[in-house]
Design goal:
The protein has 175 residues and is α/β, with parallel strands linked by helices. It is built from seven helices and seven strands; from the N terminus they run αββαββαββαβααα. It has helices at residues 2-9, 31-40, 60-73, 90-100, 126-132, 141-154, 156-172, and strands spanning 15-18, 20-22, 46-48, 54-59, 79-82, 87-89, 109-111. Strands 2-4-6 form a three-stranded mixed sheet. A two-stranded parallel ribbon has the order 1-5. Strands 3-7 form a two-stranded parallel ribbon.
Length: 175
C-alpha cells in the first residue's frame, strides 16, 4: 500500500524493516526485559521451546540512528533493512543475561513453545550500509546487554507498573 501510494500519488515515503531490538525502555513483555525483570523479582526466567529460535539483535540506539539515516539520506520509495549482524539464539541470550546478573546459566524453566514461533529472523543491512553509509555503533552485544540490565535495575519505577499485568497475561496463556 505504501509503495502504491508512492507510485500513484507521489507520496514521499521510505520503508524500513528492523531486527529485534534490545535496550532501555522496552516493554516488559519483550524477551530480554522480561528475563531481566523476572530475575530482579526473584523469579526463574522462562524459555520457550528448545530456545533455538534465532534473532538478529540490534540496540535501540542503532535502530533509531538507522531510521534517522533513512529519513535524511534514503531514496524515496526504497526499502531499507536495519540490522546489526547480531544473530543469537534465545538460549544463548538467556544464559548471557543469567551470567551477567550473577546467576547460574541453567537457572531457568522450560515452557511450551509459542504457536507459530518463527525459527529465525535475519536481516541483511548491506544496502543501508553501502548506499547510505550507516553502521551500528553498539556491536558488542555482551556490553550492550550489561548496560540494558543496569538500566532496568536503576529504573524499576518505569517498568514496575506494567510487570504484574504482563505476567498475569502470560500465566493465563500457560507461559
Amino acid at each position: 500500500l505504501v509503495r502504491a501510494w508512492t507510485r500513484t500519488y507521489g507520496l514521499r515515503t521510505t520503508i524500513s524493516n528492523c531486527s529485534n531490538n534490545y535496550g532501555p525502555y522496552q516493554h516488559v513483555e519483550k524477551f530480554i526485559p522480561r528475563q531481566i525483570t523476572n530475575i530482579l523479582d526473584g523469579q526463574r526466567p522462562k524459555l520457550y521451546g528448545k530456545g533455538l529460535n534465532v534473532r538478529d539483535w540490534i540496540h535501540t540506539e542503532d535502530h533509531s540512528s538507522g531510521v534517522w539515516t533513512i529519513l535524511t539520506k534514503g531514496r524515496i520509495g526504497d526499502t531499507y533493512l536495519i540490522g546489526a549482524d547480531g544473530e543469537k539464539n534465545n538460549i544463548t541470550v538467556l544464559r548471557m543475561i543469567l551470567e551477567a546478573m550473577g546467576k547460574d546459566p541453567e537457572d531457568f524453566d522450560w515452557v511450551a513453545d509459542r504457536p507459530g514461533h518463527d525459527r529465525r529472523y535475519a536481516i541483511d543491512s548491506t544496502k543501508l550500509q553501502r548506499e547510505l553509509g550507516w553502521r551500528p555503533a553498539h556491536t558488542d552485544f555482551a556490553e550492550g546487554l550489561k548496560a540494558t540490565i543496569d538500566w532496568y535495575v536503576a529504573n524499576e519505577s518505569w517498568w514496575r507498573p506494567a510487570k504484574e499485568a504482563t505476567e498475569a497475561r502470560y500465566r493465563a496463556q500457560g507461559q
